[in-house]
Design brief:
alpha/beta, nine-stranded mixed β-sheet, Arc Repressor Mutant, subunit A, globular, pyruvate-formate lyase- activating enzyme, binds iron/sulfur cluster
Length: 463
């Protein structure tokens, strides 16, 4: 099935090369680059002010451990073979839950996500303890309350028993790290997992009744070619995942130490990578997947696609989400919370994270309190990224400003993007065109008050 024109993302080589710049992915605004050290008392006062609120909560738990080190990895993780390490870490997570429970424990959790690292590095006993802790300190009742309860899985680290446990405890969404099925690529990135293994895990998950299965794949890995990735797609599509996230490998060995184990000569050249991406996007759309935006694809039957088509799509630290605007409380080393106009990030390093919690103090290292200007721009970026449209009249009414005057400079810049057919400008209305859905970040950056040439290098390329 080929999608209707309105949703089909075209490929324009000239414009894509022109707009393939570096820009934030806007899982937050302001982005993490703007986070600063915060006064502990200010943070605590803000959290205490949340206590009377009763609207739903999204909870994220970061499990940083990995049994194997993937050489492409740019995540915050701890490579270890010591399976007892999570026991101490769970003690710390419990301390963090205790500290937050008095302000957030009564709010219904409608979204729970376990990310990493490798969440299933935990044994069944450790996972049971973790989920028991969530149920003790928070209002998490997946049997009686609908929600999106999901976990990132490494197929090599996911037993039948673990899948059964997760399903029994109410998880309904799984995200498998697939990356690429090409054996030479897998050997080079130190992540060998056969197609048969992934197929087996997916079949088991479906038998157990998991409603939505996501695959993560990566474009631009070592030894990847158009032909090898076409074969990966053939195998991927034969398993019919409901959602696909197609990430872009950026080879930055000076920033990410594991990448130093990859021979740069094995990484596809930019032109070759662009061809692989072009073919991938075309194939996915021809196969009936809807391009959601910024790396994400979904079948029209999936909740994410329905949210896009129905105008209720949201964006948060996990990318796109179906959940209506909820606060997100994130626990664990390096995790980022988004709570009522404030971003708060825990320490990256396990040492200070554990030291602070051992003294029953929050492990928050930095963050940002949003100004009114930040809130306006955050809302605008969310509208464009999720709904693909922006009404300045709505901005004026919602924030009590003269939006056309406030954003006159941004409007001028949008004029150039309109000429290139990335969007249309109609009176005070911005509508993102199909090509603009692919080149979304150059549109969003127009409203970013912090983005300058001097920090552009901190972000990844658009494609
Ligand atoms: S890619 Fe995932 S599984 Fe691999 S080392 Fe990084 S966090 Fe661990």
């Amino acid at each position: 099935m080929i999608l209707a024109n309105k949703w089909y993302v075209p490929w324009d080589e000239t414009l894509i090369r022109q707009y393939d710049v570096t820009a934030p992915r806007y899982t937050s605004y302001p982005t993490a680059v703007q986070f600063k050290a915060l006064q502990a008392i200010e943070v605590q006062n803000h959290l205490d002010r949340q206590r009377p609120k009763i609207h739903p909560l999204s909870l994220y738990l970061h499990i940083p451990f990995c049994q194997h080190l993937c050489f492409y990895c740019a995540c915050n993780k701890i490579a270890t073979k010591d399976r007892t390490r999570p026991d101490v870490y769970l003690d710390m997570l419990e301390r963090e839950m205790v500290l937050h429970a008095r302000n957030f424990g009564h709010r219904p959790i409608t979204q729970l996500h376990l990310g990493g690292g490798t969440p299933t590095f935990l044994s069944n006993r450790q996972m049971t303890r973790l989920l028991d802790l969530v149920a003790v300190y928070f209002d998490w009742d997946p049997v009686n309350r609908a929600g999106e309860f999901s976990i990132e899985l490494d197929p090599r680290e996911t037993s039948d028993d673990m899948l059964r446990l997760l399903r029994q405890r109410g998880f309904n969404r799984l995200s498998f790290g697939v990356q690429d099925f090409h054996h030479q690529t897998q050997v080079t990135i130190n992540r060998v997992q056969s197609f048969e293994l992934v197929q087996d895990r997916v079949q088991k998950a479906r038998e157990l009744g998991f409603g939505s299965i996501n695959f993560d794949l990566i474009c631009g890995l070592p030894h990847q070619t158009s032909a090898s990735f076409a074969r990966t797609w053939e195998q991927t599509l034969s398993l019919s995942p409901d959602r696909i996230s197609l990430y872009n490998y950026a080879h930055l060995p000076e920033r990410f130490k594991p990448q130093r184990r990859i021979d740069p000569a094995s990484v596809p050249q930019p032109d070759d990578k662009l061809c692989i991406l072009r073919d991938s996007i075309a194939l996915l759309q021809q196969s009936g997947y809807l391009y959601i935006g910024m790396d994400h694809f979904a079948k029209p039957s999936d909740e994410l696609a329905k949210a896009l088509l129905g105008g209720s799509l949201q964006r948060n630290f996990q990318g796109y989400s179906t959940q209506a605007e909820t606060d997100m409380l994130a626990l664990g080393v390096s995790s980022i919370s988004q709570i009522d106009g404030v971003y708060l990030q825990n320490h990256h390093a396990i040492g200070p994270y554990e030291a602070l919690l051992t003294e029953s103090q929050l492990a928050i290292k930095r963050g940002v309190f949003l100004t009114q200007d930040d809130k306006i721009r955050q809302w605008i970026i969310g509208q464009l990224a999720c709904q693909g449209r922006l009404s300045l009249a709505e901005v004026s009414a919602r924030f009590r400003i003269d939006a056309p005057a406030y954003f006159s400079q941004a409007w001028e810049q949008l004029g150039k993007l309109a000429q290139d057919d990335l969007l249309t400008l109609d009176a005070d209305l911005v509508t993102v065109r199909p090509l603009g859905r692919l080149l979304l970040r150059p549109i969003l950056v127009t409203f970013d008050a912090y983005f300058t040439a001097s920090i552009a290098g901190l972000y990844s390329k658009v494609l």
